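User: Predict the full complex structure for these chains.
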Amino acid sequence: MPTKPKKTAKSAKAVAAPKHQNTRLWLMYPPKKITEPIIWQISQKFKVVTNVRQASVTGEIGIVCLELSGLRPEVKATIKWLVGLGISVEPVEISVVES
Amino acid sequence: MANEKSFMKALKCRECGHEYPLAATHVCEFDFGPLEVVYDYEAIRGSLTRASIESRAKNMWRYRELLPVAGEPTVGNQVGYTTLVKADRLAKRLGIRELWIKNDAVNYPTLSFKDRVVSVALSRAVELGFTTVACASTGNLANSVAANAAAAGLKAYVFIPADLEHGKVINSLVYGANVIGIKGHYDEVNRLCAEIAGKYGWAFVNVNMRPYYAEGSKSMGFEIQEQLGWRIPQHTVIPMASGSLLTKIHKSYQEFSKLGLVSNTKWKIHGAQATGCNPISAAQKQGLDFFKPVKPNTIAKSLAIGTPADGFYSLRVMKETGGHSDDVSDDEIREGIKLLAECEGIFAETAGGVTVGVAKKLIASGKIPAEDSAVLCITGNGLKTLDAVVNSVGQTREIRPSLREFEGLLETEDAACKA
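Assistant: Here is the predicted structure of the two-chain assembly.
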């Protein structure tokens, strides 16, 4: 009698395709990053769509309101890369965690 | 209350002015700007008078026309109308003619002003058909959502950083809320909570309910004006975390003035922060119209928001009204708490120490003139932050059960005083 293949955690994981995600963020650039083409670099490094909704650039801070769309792992990797550059990455609500 | 109609007109983007229906939404689809409730002031003028307000129950809902609910509020019927204390002894110590304390340290039920905003958010959530409410918080907001949701029979999810002090966690768990600790840095917790709020169809009080939630702060300002005998204070000193409370108290003054409930006198709004988390006060002192994010490091945990959502709008209010801002060190915060307690018998949490400390600086520097009158907003109870003052309030002196020993102690103290 043929045995039923066991469903392992690994095979269950394999069938779950990454989900598409839309994330709305505020990016705040420190002064040394203000002149760098960060948004262009995102499009070169990650498979995400970037959509700038607001921006304000002064000599002291760069603020960009950005929509990021793509597969969840790509969006997460993009955020991690931005944080690694020293850019503050906040959700569009900014401070969700209140006192 | 006689009038049960809605006086809300729409939600409106604070950046571009685009209007939206009165749903559970908080961000403009065009520029992601925050949404705010707009009202039909002409209709309100016909309903809200000094006499009608004075005839109502002494709670925050006596200004119902100017709060964002469509019908009778279902949450918070015992919230608000806290005392406005004439603080003569503190006024003398700070060197100002007249000083008042708006004391939300005794706001019901969780001893902070958050009960005001949560009452509005939950009342509106019930109107919109929600049965589950949520928040992400490190303290007062979590307690308030848990307590008010329990009283309203709503299911509550409270998200907290996993390393939060156990005492603060108990204050939410006791009400039967689902308390979820999230491991990770503040920024990660922040982003995850925003994601959860977007994914689940709950009323997240400070996310999709934020336009309604924030309006609850206005009730503190309405009460100040009524309790002062229907006038706007010359100076109001307000602690700033996100900055929302400051902008909403300003809005409450504008609204009463617009409706003719108070005379349109000049007022100045001043903001108070801790030096260990001072993005708004630092910007104000430098004359900037934007703030730079900071990493908080202060005992004033309830004000420790390094990237304040309403920072820009707070700066604008202070500029428009000619107000100022300052910040105080942890030691100055402790001194402020003690000063308020010793002069007025009011034990405030660390944010109260910040407000008193900053008021002291603003009066000493003449930014609040000594001949003027000021209101200080106290937003939470000192019993919530005992750890902050545990080593700075002195110690008990122990004696055996002997009168002789007690009298000996008094003699020693008298001698020390004379020396």
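The helical segments of chain A are 9-15, 38-45, 72-84.
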